[in-house]
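Checklist before submission:
- one chain only
- standard amino acids only
- sequence pasted in full

Submission:
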Amino acid sequence: MRKQLILLAVLIFCTRAHNLNAFTVQVNAANYEPHADCHGVTPGYTDLIPAVTMGLPDPTSLYGSQLLHYLQLHYPDNEPDMPGGATFIYTISATSLTGTLHVDWYKARDWENGNICHHGADISLHYEHGPGDPDELDWIQFVTESGDSGNRYMHVDGRQQDTDDGWPYYFHMYDNPADFYVKDLELPEGDIFGDYPYDGHDERFPAQGITSFELFLATNTEYDIDTNSYTITLYNGMTWGYKWGCAPEPATVILFVMSVLGAFLRFKK
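Returned file contents:
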């Protein structure tokens, strides 16, 4: 009986120790606004997709294989515009990170500019390393859209596409991530991330959409001269994003139809 009690105590201790070192996502409630109303002529809304922890994807599962496939499809090597670049070998880590992803700012946004209504989200976060984590980590983000947001599916997202440096990381190698962090927050220690996506539409017409993101931490090996390659490894991450919708009031639709009809009749004359 005594041996059983000792074994049970060891199991409880190990479980608690494991949980203390588990990868977690913490959202700062003071800077979290999950809903925004549309205050223009078109009633509407923007709602945040909850920031949820993502564990390590199984590379043999459909989802894990899709992640690796789309990375390879979009970024096969570091010289996309010329032959001879170093190839990328993508993997998913078998070991979880142990730190905390702090979501410091996460707010729904909804604003108007003339007839264009905009829906989006502002997010700023940082990763606090845990025991055993790699010293250097980068961000890889996938975006999926539906409805009037667009039709991208597991597209490798990021600022690097503006000046394509050949790497799949969200930030360009010469970016300072602090420039994309919410400026009225004190800059934290750790790996910093910030983004402010939005969708726009003509608010005289009904529209709705969803834009979702899967944000991962990642690292890469040094250049392997024998294989002319780098190995990039995905770790844990989180989901986030927003869904939105707008439907013009009946009076707005009637006025718009009347204006179009009036213009047509004048043209016919």
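Reviewer check: Helices lie at 2-20, 62-74, 250-268.
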